[in-house]
Design a protein that fits this description.
CATH superfamily: P-loop containing nucleotide triphosphate hydrolases
Radius of gyration: 18 Å
Shape: globular
CATH topology: Rossmann fold
Strand order of the largest sheet: 3-4-2-5-1-6-7-8
Order of helices and strands: EHEHHEEHHEHEHEHEHHH
Distance between the termini: 55 Å
CATH class: Alpha Beta
Oligomer: single chain
Number of domains: 1
């Protein structure tokens, strides 16, 4: 029988492009929520090529695929906590549901089973952060439906990336979600590009909810060390990530993020 009680929030990190920093943002969201004292769980739902455990230098004992097998075998006795690993660093500790280790397991993940697992996690945690793949798949649509917040992550680097971001934004809005559920976040702002932020916002039809600084070195160093950036707010990117979580938890801090740049007339003409 399904457990009764307060359900935690689900924050999904999604993008229409790869290599935009979804995993970095998801990891640091979970870490910052934990640092603030919330019970947090990070779910790697990039089923085929999940990178959460690689980022955290974590070797999982069990995965989402193992959880599905157990839930399907006996839903009444299924205990989701048995399929979680715990990541700890300094004063930060949060749970991790690892992605399947093999491609055949990824292909055999069932939408309803993953939905059941996420629902169970909601009873155990204040926040469930979900890292997804870059696709409007049946699995991702289910996760979006369950989400309290959809963090739509984008970067402004090339025209095709912006085109895909526009298509993604229009698609998500067409699903009928309340506007407050969708948070458009720009990663790697102030990178070396001639594309102006205001022109991109005009194309998308809405402003970015939050902007993350472009700090490749800080991101690279944190990933190489297997630690979240937010454990120490000594870089602009770490501060921006902390500020994003503060906004999500209605505990805003000062945010002076922004973007600068110029745009050539050909770019404006393409997206009239």
């Amino acid at each position: 029988m399904e457990e009764q009680g307060r359900r935690g929030n689900v924050i999904t990190v999604f993008s229409t492009a790869s290599a935009v920093g979804k995993t970095l943002v998801a990891v640091n969201m979970a870490a910052e929520l934990a640092r603030l004292g919330y019970r947090a769980c990070l779910v790697d739902a990039d089923l085929q090529f999940g990178d959460v455990c690689n980022y955290l230098h974590l070797v999982p004992e069990r995965t989402l695929a193992d959880a599905q097998k157990a839930a399907e075998a006996d839903a009444d006795t299924f205990d989701v906590s048995q399929f979680l690993d715990v990541y700890t660093c300094d004063n930060i500790s949060f749970s991790v549901m690892a992605a399947p280790l093999r491609l055949d397991e990824a292909y055999n993940m069932a939408v309803l089973s993953v939905q059941h697992i996420l629902q169970q996690l909601q009873f155990h945690f204040d926040f469930v952060v979900v890292d997804t793949t870059s696709a409007f798949s049946e699995m991702n649509l289910m996760i979006m439906d369950m989400s309290t917040i959809i963090t739509f992550l984008g970067i402004v680097d090339f025209i095709p990336t912006i085109k895909n971001m526009k298509i993604g934004c229009d698609t998500i809005h067409s699903l009928g979600y309340e506007s407050s559920k969708i948070r458009l976040v720009l990663n790697r702002s102030k990178s070396k590009t001639k594309i102006d932020l205001e022109d991109v916002e005009r194309i998308l039809g809405e402003p970015f909810y939050h902007v993350l600084s472009n700090d490749f070195k800080a991101a690279w160093d944190a990933t190489a060390a297997g630690v979240p950036l937010v454990r120490s707010a000594d870089t602009a990117l770490a501060k921006d990530l902390r500020s994003l979580v503060a906004r999500f938890t209605n505990n805003e801090v000062e945010d002076d993020s922004g973007a600068e740049g110029g745009v050539s007339s050909w770019f404006k003409r393409i997206f009239k």
